[in-house]
Design a protein that fits this description.
With 198 residues, the protein is mainly α. It contains 7 helices and no strands. The chain has one domain: Up-down Bundle (Four Helix Bundle (Hemerythrin (Met), subunit A)).
Amino acid sequence: MELHRDDEASKIGMWIFIFTEFLLFGGLFLVYSVYRYRNSEAFHLAAEELNTFLGALNTIILLISSATMAMSITAVQRKQKKLALGLMSVTMIVALTFLVNKYFEWGYKIEHGLFPGSEKLVDFGQGEVLFYGLYFFMTGLHALHIIIGGVFIAVVMARVAKEKITHDNHVLLENAGLYWHLVDAIWIFLFPLFYLIT
């Protein structure tokens, strides 16, 4: 018995989900903007403590992963299963590299007492507390999205390997790609907000 497929409904559902995610992060960007306007000097000083090189490296990493994810969709459409699986594997490795970089970056901040609730941060003042509170929350929420995206891609890879996703039935892979591009787009906003705008 063949199951009913509605590819258009699946794509529309993913776009609606992506829209809600943009609303969530859009609200957080608005909160960040208001607090930055009210504490511009403190935000400037706090931003100087961030590692711009690591932030830029993570941006490049995510751009590469978006490219490999997009290429995997093309590979499936061309019936190149091994290539598609290889490209998705690269996406997963690159995503893991991003998380490892973020782990070390966070670890450095925590080691130096620059995290919400630390006595050192409270001594700096309210502006720094707000900056690092937003930094950890927003980049942490983004890291959670990367983990979810990695699980999503792993599920898709298993289905490609079992040939449940094929050249004429690849909407789930496309949706995974859309989700991954969302993760990339969110970071493209986070990077300049925290690392570049002084």
